[in-house]
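S., here's the first fold you wanted:
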Amino acid sequence: MKIKKIFLISLMAFSLISGCAKEPSPAPPTQMEEPNPSDATPDAVTTASIVDNAADFEKAVSNKGSWIICLVKDITINKELVLDGEFKNGKKDDEGKDIIQRKIALYAQDANRNITNRYTLTIPKLTINSPEASIQHGTFKGDIYVTAKNFKLIDTIVEGNVYFTNEDAKSTFSMDENSKITGVQKMAE
């Protein structure tokens, strides 16, 4: 019985780590670019933050966190939080520019990227300040305030409201056909 439990725990840990693992990044350019001190954009390329508690989640969503935050169980946080900072996901677009992205992954997946479990994140208010952010494949309970461009809901149920603090945030917001918002979706007052 004990061996069976250890085997199952090991299998779950392997599935989670391989599902949230960072893809290999391309080889660095042969010529170094000089940093431009006047650039206001942070240069953050990080790996996944795998979180199973409120304190780790709070650190992960800060501007010192990581581009992807992977939950491994349901988490409830009893205070307002902000998804902050601009992050690069380690990939390049067709023009060779770094891709800006921030993702809250409310799911686990296997080595073939099949979703194996979905989680619920409960926060009274989450403000989205990170550009190109998304919440994916789970349930969010609470209200979301969007200030950044191109926020996405992907296969996510929001049990609450989605408010936009500016017209750019509203006009660039998207959600797929599998996503649902149970409350209102409107400009914040």
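And the second, which I think is the more interesting of the pair:
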Amino acid sequence: MKQYSTKRHASMETQQETKTRLLWRIESIYKKLDAMYGTQGLIMKASKFDAIELMSSSVLQERVLALSRILKENPTLNDKFLENQIPAVLDELEELLVEDFARRKVENELEQRIQQRIEEKYNDYIHDIKLQVIREQKASPENARTLKKLGILEKMEYTRLNCSALNILRPTCLNEIIGQDKAVKALISRLNNPYPQHIILYGPPGVGKTTCARLALEMVKGKPQSAFSQEAPFVEVDGSTLRWDPRESTNPLLGSVHDPIYQGARRELAEEGIPEPKLGLVSEAHGGILFIDELGDMDPILQNKLLKVLEDKRVFFESSYYDPHDERIPQYIKQMFEQGVPADFVLIGATTRERQDISPAFRSRCMEIFFEPLTREHIKQIVHISASKLQINIESSISDIISQYCCDGRGANKILVDTFAIALNESEKLEQVVEVRQQHVYEAIQNSRLSTCCLQRATDEAEVGKIFGIGAFAYQGRLIELEAVAFPAEHPGEGSIRFNETAGSMAKDSVFNAASVLRQDSGEKLKDYDLHINFIGGGKVDGPSAGAAIYLAILSAIKKKPIRQDVAITGEISLQGKVKAVGALHEKIYGACQSGIKKMLIPSENGEDIVKKPPGMEIIPIRYISEAYKYVFV
């Protein structure tokens, strides 16, 4: 019994020693915190983390919890741990204390060094400030003459004419771009995705290419699937006006480095002979869109330089004045010369030229979108929308008249604005809504010396030796009026063929092909006839697509078979009598539709090219020229 009592007494002494050591460790941590933050600072920190009451508690666990909240800076800690867990918790808290103490010591040493450096440089700073004050107190560059010119400029800022009518009529949303639904959808889809592509827009002038490019970015900015942020810039430039110096002293597109001595630079850089690169449009468009209008008219060498930027997404500068070891050069200039300037943008180029006129290297890096020429119905819609924007009343026939004299939206708006001006000056009361009548629009048309877009029109009559072919130029199609007349030769086998020399060698080859097919199919020899073939209106026919029309005109002239004048045909004729595929089919269909053609014969090889047939016109694919007889001849 006595032995058991002795062991119990020894165990109680051991527990008491352990508790005492824990108290010493806790007190030591509190003293270190007091030394780090000060008494007032420690109280404020403990109050911030809801540990004031826990600090003064007589329970070890609560005092340790207070230390945990202070060192871990977490007022929500409420751990319940046993007394035998306290040593491990204190080990963790001591580690946090050591780390915090070391960090504060480094910060204090750094502050001391900064303060020491400020004291050392104090006199230099005072000297620089005095020099700056002296410079500011120098005589002002302003005098009576310069102030007078400043006043004139400020007065000019307040004197403004009204804005241009064409600016008012410009589409403000994609829904106002008429007749380009497919092109608009294609453009938006190529921009509104995580990987936007460079794009070239083809099409005739005045159909909405530039406006569509301006509005497209606003549609896709900030969308979740778009790569463009809300701050994405839109930089626009006319490619036909871009001028640059081959010596790279001037390049508004890519940027340039000015000679600091002869071309001028900032004064503090010029005095030291330090070159400063001037950023170009490609850097301004970083993160957004660079739109180049009339891309096809841009300098070819400048196009090649732009291709390099498209590949690298960065612009690099060079200058013989740049010395990388010169310590006087600012860091931003060093970075511009050594690392280049970012130029990550999406290029959208618009052109009225044919795709073969654009550099193949450019085309290979860009998606291509084609804008359709506008039909008469599209022109009528544009006229009505513009009339509502001008707040004028127009007669119902006005839109139909305007659609006969223009093929693009800009031209239609110009006629309407001119008509509005004539009607406005004839009205007696300015308060009234302007009424625009037929005589006003005809006067505007006569003043501008305009002629109808479609010089050839389809009719319901039939004529011998006369047929309509179809040509295409500048993304628009036109009817080619072709006629032929045949007379028996005075001496069999001694006939002659007369043909427009200006039509070109390819059209002449089509005549010889047609002669061979005619002899093969019907046994007729053109040498037995004096044949005259004429392209009405003159001009060169570039391509073999008029071959089928030439054959049918010759056959009609020889056989005296009338040809329907509401049918047109396009296609190359081969020596086997096949009708071969041709290009620019969409433009040719547009031209036929504009001229009132009811049936259009096309090569069967082009049948897959037609996705949507125009209303009011039948498109018939044929493989052999003989298949056209039942559609062409009466």
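Why I say that: The CA atoms of residues 104 and 186 lie 60 Å apart. The chain has four domains: 2-104, 167-370, 378-447, 462-632.

Talk tomorrow,
H.
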